[in-house]
Amino acid sequence: MDKKRWPFLLAATTAWLATVAATGEAPLSAADRRAVVEQLGQTLEANYVFPDKARTIAATLRRNLDAGDYDTAHDRPTLARELTDDLIAASNDLHFAVGVDPIWVADHAAKQDPARAAALREAERREETRKNFGFAGLRYLDGNIAYVDLTHFADPEPGYDAAAAAMRFIENGDAVIYDLRYNNGGYLEMAQLLASQLFPGDKDQELFDYYYNLDGRRVERGQWVLPALPAKRLTGKPVYVLTGSTSFSAAEWFAYTLKKLGRATLVGERTAGGAHPVDRKPVGTDFFVQVPIGQIRDPVDRGDFEGQGVTPDHPVASADALAVAHRLALTDLAKAHPAKRADADWFAPALAERPQPTPAALKAITGRYEGRRIDLVEGKLRYTWRDRFRLTLEPLGGDLLAIEGVRDFRFRILRKGGKIVALERINRDGTTDSYARLD
Description:
Elements: E1 7-9, H1 30-47, H2 51-66, H3 76-91, E2 97-100, H4 102-110, H5 114-130, E3 135-141, E4 145-150, H6 156-170, E5 175-179, E6 185-187, H7 188-196, E7 206-214, E8 217-224, E9 239-243, H8 250-260, E10 265-268, E11 278-283, E12 287-292, E13 294-297, E14 314-315, H9 321-336, H10 341-351, E15 367-369, E16 372-377, E17 380-385, E18 389-397, E19 400-403, E20 409-416, E21 419-427, E22 432-436
Parallel strand pairs: 4-5, 5-9, 9-10, 10-14
Antiparallel strand pairs: 1-6, 2-12, 3-4, 7-8, 7-13, 11-12, 15-16, 16-17, 17-18, 18-19, 19-20, 20-21, 21-22
Helix pairs in contact: 1-2, 2-3, 6-7, 7-8, 9-10
C-alpha cells in the first residue's frame, strides 16, 4: 500500500484570513495572463479528481480570459484571487485556491534534491512545533468533561508525541468534547489516530475509504481503527464534536465519520462542505494551485458531503456550541449515571444562556460591505463572507469588533460625519484593509 500522506485542508476559504504572497512588482501583460490561464488549465486536466469536469473548468477559464474578465488584473495577487473565485464558482469545490509563491514553486522543484527535501521537512516540523501540532487547548470542563481544541490535523509522524500526550490527557474524562469549529483540516492520518481512541481495538472498524491520483496512477486506501494506541481507549464514553461553517475537509471527515458510526453527537453549524483530498501543484514559476486530487467515502454507505457540508445533530450558532455541548454532556451523563445528577444541577446555572444586549446600539452597524455583510441575529452581530461562512462579532468598545474564533485580526467601524462608511480590518501586524459600506 502506498504510504504517502496527503493533507486534507482548507485553503480557498482562508484567503480572507491571510493575503496571498506577493512576488515582485512587474505588471502582468496580456501574454502573461494568457500563459498562466493556459498552464492552470493543463494542471487541472492532469490532476483534478474529475477529468471531464477539469476540461470543462479549464475551458471556462479560457472563455473568461477571452472575454476580458482578467484584463484589469495587472498584478499577480489580483489575478490569483480572480482565478480562485472563478475556480470555486465553476466547480462549487472550496478546496480550489490559486496563490502566488515563487519561493514555494522553487522549493517544490528543489525537492528532487534529497538534502533540500530534508531541509524543507525540518522547516515544516519547526513550524508545526510552534503551533503545537494543532493542539491549541486541552482542559477539563466542570463535571469532568475533557475538552480538546484542535486547530488543524498535523502530520502524525512529527506530531505523534503531541497527539499521544493529548490522548493521555483526556483519557480520564467522563466525556470528551472535540472543538473543530475553526479547524481547517489537515492530515487524515492524524484524524485516524485520534478517532481510534474512541473505538475498541479488538474489532475491525473502517474509518475512511478513499482514492487519489498519484503521478498518473490511481491509489486506493482504507483507514481503520488502529489496534495499538499510546493511551487508554474512551469506548463507551460520550463524545461531542463542535462544528462551524469554517470546519473544513479532514475536520469535516472526523465529524462525519463519527456521526455515521453513531459514535459522536455533533453540535454547532453546518460545515463548509469540502470532502476531497488535495495537493498543491506549481503553475509556471510564480503561481500554484491547490487542486482536489481524490475522493473519500464514508465507511457506512460510501457517501460524502462535498458541496453540502455536515449537518450537526444540534444546530446552534458556532459561538454557542461549546456551552450547549457542555450542557448536553452533563445531562447525558446524569441520565446514564444518576449519581451525577447533582453535578448537572449544580453547573446548569453557570451554563445557562444569558440575555443578549439590546440590539438598539448594534443596529447601525448592520448592512452590506464590499464582499461581505453584517446582520443582527438574535441580538448578536453576524458576519457573513462568500455567502457561506458565518461568524459572530463581539463588540470590544471604541468601534472595535472581535471575530469569533479569529486571533490574528479585528474589525473597526469607520465613521464619517457620524455615518458608518466602511468596515476596516486591522491585522495583528498593524496593516489594514478597508471594505466600503454599500448601503
